[in-house]
Design a protein that fits this description.
The complex is a heterodimer.
Chain A: E1 4-13, E2 16-26, E3 31-35, H1 42-50, E4 57-62, E5 65-66, E6 77-80, H2 92-102, H3 107-120, H4 136-148, E7 154-158, H5 166-183, E8 186-191, H6 194-200, E9 203-208, E10 211-216, H7 218-223, H8 228-233, E11 240-246, E12 250-253, E13 258-260, E14 272-277, E15 282-297, E16 302-308, E17 311-317, E18 328-333, E19 339-342
Helix pairs in contact in A: 2-3, 2-4
Chain B: H1 5-33, H2 37-40, H3 56-63, H4 67-74, H5 89-119, H6 125-134, H7 144-153, H8 162-191, H9 194-202, H10 207-218, H11 220-236, H12 239-244, H13 251-256, E1 259-260, E2 263-264, H14 266-288
Antiparallel strand pairs in B: 1-2
Helix pairs in contact in B: 1-14, 3-14, 5-8, 5-11, 6-8, 8-11, 9-10, 11-14
Classes of the chains: A alpha+beta, B mainly alpha.
Chain lengths: 350, 302
């Protein structure tokens, strides 16, 4: 087990800089998720920790030791790849024991470790099979088994669930989380799926275009996004974001609609802002006049899409109401959950 | 799509017909090798099956029976070449040694080269690849004189030392085979995802270990295919062998000597030709179990 320190890391491919100076500390035993849209540099960052990409500038430290020039095999890490990267010509057992054989561990130990991993991952009946004879979920587990038998200091996961179907993904998500709870090995997990990030992480690192946008616990980044990008990226349906100008106790939108503000807020009168409110923090009641366009019942709740002036917003209600298209309602925002962002900088107004 | 019964019959008949068409020359060749001289040289009709089969042609070419004795036994007055001229045993040996040797050298070099071209970054890599392929476009006859002189100057002529003749043929065949083998193998190496190398590296393998234990077994099929190609090329090559060697006569060169000033010895030509198919056939049998598709199947998500 070990902590990972990333100090002012840069990565360039030729003249193109893709990671622009990232600082991050990953605590010993924690589960950290790198989250961001594709091309944000999250995989590159992970591969730099693994040693599969060189570091253009800055330092990577594992367990307090600078590893910039250390070969991946000597970093005491294990990695699970997006496409599993199994050794197709070897059985499940040989796949899992390959690293132990290379390390010349005694036979009894190899048997024991592989047996232990197979038991944890429910792979015992498949040890003699080849990867081609396994289903996607089983291959996924073999890839994980290959990682855990080594008892590494750090686990690295590169979008390991993105090739599984939805049901299996939920199941494997729980299994990975459970595995982490049991082994308590420092884990770095890359994904573009915010649900995975929210459900699994101790700490989420949100990346965009090679820089960190926000670091925090899942609920922290959900409840207190520091800028417009994080606000819109986290949450589904995403946060309603409406442009307007701050007045005394409300924000006046371009369409002339008044959006109520809490008593204390950081906005200055006349400031151009973006008004943010999550769908579940809007209910039917007195407040913002809106015209219903679409309702989507999901079962536990109903997603109501309505037009506020020219802008569409979403509200989530739990009451079994029948709302007709074109009818007008009033939406009441929970004033304690209103976010204000500066329109020019995109940063939250405290 | 399921064909109706009559169409199935048409399709199957056509398949049989095409296959027979391709197989016929081989069949006729093998049939002729079993005919006595009188059946081969019947000037009145084409002899199909009404002859007494004989292994005499094989006995002469492969066991060293005397041609002149044979002529006397058959009561023929044809002109007869030297007694040893049709003994092809040493030619078979020459061909086997040279083909296996050339294939081995080619594969050793090509596997390493293809791996490097597929996995490593170095200056001029792509230009090198084109240059490699360019080598194959030159007809050997265009460079035959420089080659003969080069080999002579390098002391690789079999008139100096018989075994050097083997070596010289192995070298020149490897040279001819390398471009195609490298290109073929590179595409097989390219098919093995780089993630697999990286996984092996993280598992603690050195570059050489990930090459030998992981990547190499996954391109087994490609190696087998390339080896077959190299072997067949070396086995059937005529021109270079004719020019570069004197004492050594590989099978194609040997067969050509059966076309003599006193007539074509069809019996011996067909016997040696038929026999020459066998080593190649054995070689392909040995490697064909590796010639299976989908060796990387299961390595990746689908």
């Amino acid at each position: 087990m070990a902590s990972v320190n990333i100090k002012n890391i840069f990565k360039k491919y030729g003249d193109v800089e893709v990671v622009h100076g990232i600082n991050l500390t990953i605590d010993d035993g924690s589960f950290v998720v790198f989250l961001g849209p594709s091309g944000c540099g999250k995989s590159t960052l992970l591969r730099m920790i693994a040693g599969l990409e060189s570091v253009t500038a800055g330092d990577v430290e594992i367990a307090g030791k600078r590893v910039n020039n250390v070969h991946p095999k000597d970093r005491n890490i294990a990695m699970v790849f997006q496409n599993y990267a199994l050794y197709a010509h070897m059985t499940v057992k040989d796949n899992m024991s390959f690293s132990l054989h290379l390390a010349k561990r005694p036979k009894a130990e190899i048997e024991e470790k592989v047996g232990w991993a197979a038991k944890i991952l429910n792979l015992e009946p498949y040890l003699a099979r080849y990867p081609r004879e396994l289903s996607g979920g089983q291959r996924q587990r073999v890839a994980m088994g290959r990682a855990i038998v080594r008892d590494p200091a750090v686990f690295l996961f590169d979008e390991p669930l993105s090739n599984l179907d939805a049901k299996l993904r939920v199941q494997m998500r729980t299994e990975i989380k459970d595995l982490h709870e049991r082994l308590k090995t420092t884990t770095v997990y890359v994904t573009h799926d915010q649900i995975e990030a929210m459900t699994m992480a101790d700490k989420i690192v949100i990346l965009r275009d090679g820089i960190i946008e926000q670091v925090g616990t899942p609920l922290d980044v959900y409840d207190h996004p520091v800028n417009l990008f994080v606000a819109s990226f986290i949450g589904s349906p995403s946060m309603n974001l409406i442009k307007g100008v701050v007045a005394k106790d409300h924000v006046l939108t371009e369409g002339g609609v008044k959006l109520p503000l809490p008593k204390t807020h950081g906005g200055k009168i006349g400031q151009k802002v973006v008004y943010g409110i999550r769908p579940e923090h809007m209910s039917l009641g007195k407040g913002i006049p809106a015209t219903i366009s679409v309702t989507e019942p999901t079962g536990p709740e109903i997603h109501v899409y309505a037009d506020v002036g020219p802008q569409e917003v979403c509200a989530i209600i739990r009451d079994r109401l029948v709302l007709k298209r074109g009818s007008t309602v009033e939406l009441a925002p929970d004033l304690s959950k209103v976010h204000l962002f500066d329109e020019a900088t995109g940063k939250v107004i405290a | 799509m399921e064909l109706s019964k009559p169409w199935q019959f048409v399709r199957d008949s056509f398949a049989v017909f095409v296959t027979s068409l391709f197989m016929f020359p081989m069949f006729w060749w093998a049939l002729t090798s079993l005919k006595p001289i009188s059946a081969i040289f019947d000037k009145d009709k084409v002899v199909w099956f009404d002859f007494t089969p004989t292994l005499i042609n094989y006995a002469v070419t492969l066991l060293g029976r005397s041609r002149s004795q044979l002529a006397i036994d058959e009561g023929l007055g044809m002109g007869v070449a030297g007694t040893e001229a049709y003994d092809s045993r040493s030619s078979m040996l020459d061909s086997i040694v040279v083909s296996i040797g050339a294939t081995t050298i080619t594969m050793l070099v090509a596997i390493l080269a293809a791996y490097a071209l597929s996995r490593m970054q170095f200056r001029g890599r792509d230009a090198f690849l084109n240059w490699v392929l360019g080598q194959r476009f030159m007809p050997p006859i265009a460079i035959i004189f420089p080659l003969v002189i080069t080999f002579k100057l390098a002391g690789l002529r079999d008139t100096d030392n018989y075994y050097l003749g083997w070596l010289s043929l192995m070298l020149i065949y490897s040279l001819m085979n390398l471009p195609i083998a490298v290109l073929l193998l590179k595409s097989f190496f390219d098919d093995v995802p780089k993630d697999v190398d990286e996984a092996a590296m993280i598992d603690g393998a050195t570059r050489f270990q990930s090459f030998s234990k992981i990547v190499l077994p996954m391109v087994r099929g490609g190696i087998a295919a390339a080896a077959v190609l190299c072997f067949v090329f070396s086995w059937t090559e005529f021109l270079l062998s004719l020019f570069l060697t004197t004492d050594i006569r590989t099978v194609p060169v040997k067969i050509q000597t059966f076309v003599t000033s006193t007539g074509n010895e069809w019996g011996f030509i067909t016997a040696l030709g038929t026999a020459a198919v066998i080593p190649g056939f054995i070689f392909i049998l040995l490697v064909q179990r590796h010639l299976v598709r989908g060796l990387t199947l299961g390595s990746l998500k689908e």
